[in-house]
Amino acid sequence: MVSIKTVAVLGGTGNLGPSIVRELVSAGFTVTGISRESSTNSTPIYPDVVAIKKVDYNSYDALLSVFTGQDAVVSVIGTAAVPSQKIAVDAAVAAGVKRFIPSEFGINTRKVRDLPIGKILAGKIGVVDYLQEKAKENEAFTWTGITTGLFFDWGLERTGLGVINHQDKTSTIIDSGNEKFPASTLAQIGRAVAKVLQHPDETANKYIATSSFQLSQNELIAVVEELTGQKYPVVKKEKSEDLNKAGEEKLAAGDWRAFIDFLRAYNNADGAGNAIKEEESANKLIGLEYEDLKEEVGKWVKRTQASA
Ligand SMILES: NC(=O)c1ccc[n+]([C@@H]2O[C@H](COP(=O)([O-])OP(=O)(O)OC[C@H]3O[C@@H](n4cnc5c(N)ncnc54)[C@H](OP(=O)(O)O)[C@@H]3O)[C@@H](O)[C@H]2O)c1
């Protein structure tokens, strides 16, 4: 049975990383935070118990040195840097790291290879393909990919998940608004990573799906209305086919903002079928409890009311 005690986190300083570092520390792992040499934001973000090492992500030797003695590497690097993880994978294999968790944490990239959105996610898809190859070549090296759906609390705060317009108390929906999609709070993703590393045998060489809950746009609007006591009327209805068309046009022009159009259509199109079904969910496998949509929206309502 594989045992994981030491964990290096790459790029744990961004939007998601701090939640992963926090949950790993609270689960008892010995965590080392790895940042770019050029990074200016690592020191104030990590808890005191986390050692910080700065390296050049393009230097195999530097990565080999910081990964030596680590049981697992968790990569939370930003989207732009995703392809650079291949050097980290090579260094992890050479350092004797037992588990590599790549920077996925979004839609299931295993399912979109042949879709237009897959062109934008080619870097992530390539890294998971590479991990599969390396695990075949080295029995002691394993990987786990984690799809989590949308960042729920982060997305609600920043963009109302593209549904809730908090400023003018209105809503926007795509198609009927009834299609369910998966979402996870940042803390839940942190717990998912910690629990994967606590269940290394069950999760070895697997691409797994975890979430806080599944929800639809209309369900989100209903809960926001219930908890705020205010109406958020739907003033804009978008069609998923128009979003896909807009995405194609942007992609053809080399504009990577196409991702947002594709993503909104991917999650919300009627019949998309991307909600995580119970039999596909790894929550049970790793002992991760679901969260409650109303409770999480309630936290957002409290925060927005406190800052009003
Ligand atoms: N599901 C969703 O709704 C959702 C939303 C956003 C992101 N994501 C995914 O979640 C993962 C983490 O995203 P995030 O938003 O937390 O990332 P982020 O904040 O953009 O970046 C995370 C860290 O990566 C490092 N980094 C940034 N640019 C880099 C570069 N050019 N080269 C090397 N390292 C760089 C930085 O760490 P240092 O400064 O410490 O080096 C940064 O703090 C990604 O896979 C992303 O696609 C999912």
From TrEMBL:
Keywords: NADP, Oxidoreductase. The keyword NADP applies. One of its GO terms (molecular function) is oxidoreductase activity. Gene3D superfamilies: NAD(P)-binding Rossmann-like Domain, UDP-galactose 4-epimerase, domain 1. The keyword Nucleus does not apply. It comes from the Eukaryota. Residues 5-232 form the NmrA-like domain. Signal peptide: none annotated. Coiled coil: none annotated. This is NmrA-like domain-containing protein. It comes from Podospora fimiseda.
